[in-house]
Amino acid sequence: MSKMQRTEFAALMAKLRACYQNPVSDKSQWLASLSTYWELLHGYGDTDIRAAFALAWRKHVDWMPSAGQLARLIEDRCEASADDAWPEVLRLATRSSSDHSDPIAREAIKAMGGGARLGAMRLDELQGWGRKEFREAYARLRKRKDIDDAVAAAELAQGHPGRIKESQGQG
């Protein structure tokens, strides 16, 4: 869950809204819109919310993205992160280990039954439903706010400053 305060979220929305030619001028309509976006997005981690807004400013040039489009940007980011972590998961499976450098991947492996369970899978099982199960566990865990700060620290430590800048709305 996000720790982001609604006021910070509203500031992000105002910044996003200002990028488009037809801003909402009716205050009650704006508040209803803000509430809709908040309800759909506040369950994601702060890092992913900020990254989605930053990407939306670059990607949706002609129209303001819907709350669903912003959620899709977050989901795509989570899936990409899971895919980035997958090769190391395969290496760890051969050693029946769950000692992944990505803290979310480490937790996802544990949620799947640990490194011993992965190591016991046949390669075709691991590449098929094992990968699907990992991606789902990874995305589910990524949404947890208590993991959000660990994600940012891990991405910085792994040399992904672009992701950090993007997540802070700087990229």
Q: What is the oligomeric state here?
A: single chain
Please count the helical segments: 9
Secondary-structure element sequence? HHHHHHHHH
Structural class: mainly alpha
Specify the helix fraction band. over 70%
Distance between the termini: 24 Å
Broad shape: elongated
Provide the number of structural domains. 2
| DSSP strand content | under 5%
* Count of individual beta strands: 0
Q: Which stretches are low in confidence, meaning pLDDT under 50 for 5 or more residues running?
A: 160-171
Radius of gyration, in angstroms, nearest whole number: 18 Å
Residue-averaged pLDDT: 77
Main sheet, how many strands, which sense, barrel? none
Q: Could you list some keywords that capture this structure?
A:
single chain; 171 residues; mainly alpha; 2 domains; 9 helices; 0% strand; elongated; disordered C terminus
Characterization of this structure:
The chain has helices at 6-18, 27-41, 46-59, 67-94, 103-111, 115-120, 123-142, 145-157, 161-167. It has 171 residues and is an all-alpha fold. The chain has 2 domains: 6-73; 75-167, no CATH class. α2 runs parallel beside α4 (67-94), α3 (46-59) crosses α9 (161-167) and α4 crosses α7. The radius of gyration is 18 Å and the shape is elongated. Mean pLDDT is 77; it is low at 160-171.
